[in-house]
Structure formats: structure tokens, C-alpha cells
What we know:
Distance between the termini: 23 Å
Largest sheet: 5 strands, parallel
Radius of gyration: 22 Å
GO biological process, one term: tRNA modification
Number of helices: 13
Shape: globular
CATH topology of the largest domain: pyruvate-formate lyase- activating enzyme
Binding site for [4Fe-4S] cluster 1: 49, 85, 114
EC number: 2.8.4.4
CATH architecture of the largest domain: Alpha-Beta Horseshoe
Family: Belongs to the methylthiotransferase family. RimO subfamily.
Keywords: 4Fe-4S, Cytoplasm, Iron, Iron-sulfur, Metal-binding, Ribonucleoprotein, Ribosomal protein, S-adenosyl-L-methionine, Transferase
Number of strands: 20
Amino acid sequence: MSLLEKPPGSCQTRAMNNPPDLRPDLARARVPDAARPGQPTIGMVSLGCPKALVDSERILTRLRAEGYAISPDYAGAEAVIVNTCGFLDSAKAESLEAIGEALSENGRVIVTGCLGAEPDYITGAHPSVLAVTGPHQYEQVLDAVHTAVPPSPDPFIDLLPASGVTLTPRHYSYLKISEGCNHKCKFCIIPDMRGKLQSRPAHAVLREAEKLVAAGVRELLVISQDTSAYGVDIRHRVEREHRAHITDLARDLGSLGAWVRLHYVYPYPHVRDLIPLMAEGLILPYLDIPFQHAHPEVLRRMARPAAAAKTLDEIAAWRAVCPDITLRSTFIVGYPGETEEEFQTLLDWLDEAQLDRVGAFQYENVAGARANALPDHVPDEIKAERFERFMEKAQSISAAKLEAKVGTRLEVIVDSIEEDGATCRTKADAPEIDGNLFIDEGFEGLRPGDIVEVLVDEAGDYDLWGRF
């Protein structure tokens, strides 16, 4: 996988590059294959980031509990739900295209998700959709399904798997700990679509995690819009002996015996309290941090904390406590007003920070975002040229870091087995975002979800190869 081809990271980039095997319209949900005679059947198309994927899983689990069958294709469904992304104009276009395809292939379509916050935009393009609901409006989605396809449950036959309906492989699962965001970044409209931070009770998150691990999940991917702010909105409330604070939650999750990977972590000062947990092996030594830029004036125009120098000090402190920590981030190039000098500062900062996993995307306007009104928008050809320069530097850093791993032994988790080899990931690699480690000899006895130790014998720009 090349980061130049698939910039990884936050909601913004994942929306444009949703992995095919996470698309429920392309990959079967893990539910019984055959519908019973007369059982109502619903299809699902899920676009956008992992947080939207969790929403899709919750909707499908509720429908399955009410006696609906889940169709893997348009033809077998009596209606189709399209869970949309609405962050960027390109993501909106993809969502409208998916709605149009579902209408063409099936004809009965219910729309939900982030783009659902703009119902007139959807119905203006596709007036024949049955209903439009906004993000995480589960009850309204169910009401629309009930109207379009009345339920007909049979409690003696329609048994729901203990882990619910999942759209990811059996051995890993996304664990959403909160909704919304309290930040007011000028390029982002997520708070407008999903509201302010709403944290789940810690005991509820832990109970879900325990059920997932009991069902065979070996890796928990903790996600939210702002993971390190978890619990701030509920004053880090203690319920059933569990405190709603990211450090406490990470420690609790780390006690379950699965890999625990943290995504979308803003570098607040208290993040340093997570690093000893990584050094102890309780959670994976991995932080996904949306730095976005390095020049203080660009960060100020973004309405983001403008302390890039202090961030370098913080990174050095993290590495001093946990030398094996993997840092990944996503950046915006060509933000309005970005000068060549400011962009060069970003390149120099990246040289000094030596981040392990880096992605970028070229700035584009988002309807409703305050950044649209900023002066001095960067021409498209300059944005494209800066993107290429940025990714070339990121690629060279990645290649050097991976080359240094040759000859070392690493623990990996097996994702899939094909005829010619096994595709695995190290602790430094998140699924569908980062690189892979491939084993092409002696892999026949492996199974997805196995965690094994391998010797690294070859490195590329983003991937590794190894053997037992």
C-alpha cells in the first residue's frame, strides 16, 4: 500500500478512500447467510471513516435483533440504507454517487450519516429517497426502515450473534468511546454535523470491549473525534467503579488481553500519562495524532494550538519513556494563505519529528467551513506540487525507519491468508491505514487473528517481509 495512493488517517482522508473490504455493499456482514422464508431483508452501504462504520454496525445489529435479514447485495434487499460521509466536497460527491447507484440497483433507499445533516442537498439530487436522517440517529433510521419494510420477527429462529453484527474481520474491532467534538477548527464542520463531545460511560465501553474479546477479537481500535478528551464533558464521572478518563480507560482495556490501539489522540499534556502504559505493554506503543501542520501562523489560521516547537519536546519525552512508540499523523498542505516559507517549515519540522507513519491531503473547501472565507487560497497546481514534495519526504523517512527493522524479531497479528502468503501487521500498523508485514514461506498453519513472532528480512517504503 502506498501512502501516495491512499493518504491515511482521520475522517477527512478515510472518507475518500474507504477500503473495499470495509464496504458492507462489497463485503458480507457476519450474520447467517440465508434469510428464512418471509423474512424482511435490508442492505447497507457504509461510507466514510471507522466511526461511521461503527454506526453501521449498530444499525445492522438493531435490525438483526428485530428479525431483519442482512443482504450482501442490492438484488436481495427490500430496501437499502446508505450511511454517508459529508466532510469534504469530494466525499459528498461520493455519497451522492452511492445513493444514485443504490436507487438504480434497488430503488428503495434510506439515507443516514453525516451528509444526512443536509437533507435538502440530498433530496435536491435524489428526490426519490424514502427518508433522510442525520448522523448517529439510530431511532430515526429504524423508524424509516419500519415504514419501508415492516418487521416480521420470529424469536425462535432469528438469533443474534452475541457480538452483534460486525463489518470488520473477526479478530479486530473498532471501539467508539465518544461522539462529537469541542474543537472549532476552521476547516472542519464535524461539530456542526455531530455536535459537541458526548462521552460514553466508561463501564459501558468496557462491557462492550469484554464482549468483543470474549467473541474472539484480538485487537481493539479505540476511536472517537477526540480520543484524549474522553470524559471531559461528563467531568470524568465514576460509575460502577470505572472513571471516564482516557488514561483509566486505557488501563482497563489493557487488562483484557487484547491489543489496544489508540486513534485520533490530540496531544494534550495528559497524553504523557499514556506513555508508561505503552512501555509496560498494557496498550500498544502507537499514537495517531492529527497535527495538521507545523507553522504557527498556519495553525493559528486553522484555529488549532500553535505550539509545534513544544510538540517536538513532547515527542522527545514520549520516546524517552517508550523508545518503541510509533507516531502517525495526517497533515493538510495548501491551506489558505500557506506560503512557500510556511510549507518549508512543515518539511523541516517533519525532518526533525521523524514521524513513523504520515499521510497528507490537499486542502479543499468544505461547505459551511469558516476556512472557505480566508484570503489567499493556494492554486491547485501549487497544492499538488507541495503534496508530492511532502509525501516524498515522508516516504524517505518511512523507508529508513523500516530498513532499520531488518534483522529484528517482531510480534505480528495475521489479517488474512492467501495461496501465496500471509498478510500480517506489526504493533506499529493499524489495519487499512498503515503498512503490512508479508510472510511468503511456512505460513500454511496460520489463521487470521493469530499473533506470532517473525524475523524481519526485507523492507520496502511502507511494508515489511518476514519469516519464522
